[in-house]
Design goal:
Length: 163
């Protein structure tokens, strides 16, 4: 697994996955380019043999108390390999590094695999946004993670594994 920071040169590969993963509500190339260039965002790509197979991003202002997972997406044939979890954890670590204490995200109600991943990492549902995803009329599940508690669990687990 090769995770690395995304650069503007990754835009075409990211947009190819974005359009396949979110055919009805994909971000525009302009919006994604703006995200990649933002000093407040950290985007990573997952590559296999130099080909982008997934990406994700977190928006976290340096020194801010909260962060937002903006997006995580993988090619359909690479899902279920643990790559999403590794990418999510790397994004959460980036948020910790910027001083965030909690992280928020929205996930489609019709995506139980993603919701299950977030729950397993300690996110909790804090609300719903009816018909948030358009034009599909799919609700958004709003989730929150106490990043300090997540980081403490991760650190304790890491220490146990090295002992």
């Amino acid at each position: 697994m090769t995770l690395r920071p995304a650069t503007p040169s990754d835009l075409d590969g990211i947009m190819a996955i974005e359009n396949r993963a979110f055919p009805t509500d994909a971000w525009s190339a302009e919006s994604m380019a703006s995200e990649l260039a933002s000093p407040h965002a950290r985007y990573l790509v997952d590559e296999v043999d130099g080909v982008t197979i997934g990406y994700g991003g977190v928006r976290a202002l340096q020194g801010g108390s909260d962060a937002d997972i903006q997006t995580i997406a993988f090619d359909a044939d690479r899902r279920g390999e643990g790559r999403g979890r590794a990418l999510l954890r790397a994004l959460l670590e980036a948020a910790v590094g910027r001083g965030a204490r909690e992280v928020f995200l929205e996930v489609r109600d019709d995506n139980p695999a993603a919701a299950g991943l977030y729950l397993s990492e300690g996110f909790e549902e804090i609300g719903r946004r009816p018909r948030y995803y358009q034009p599909d009329d799919v609700d958004a599940i709003v989730m929150r993670l106490d990043l300090r508690a997540w980081d403490a669990r991760r650190t304790a687990t890491s220490k146990e594994q090295t002992a």
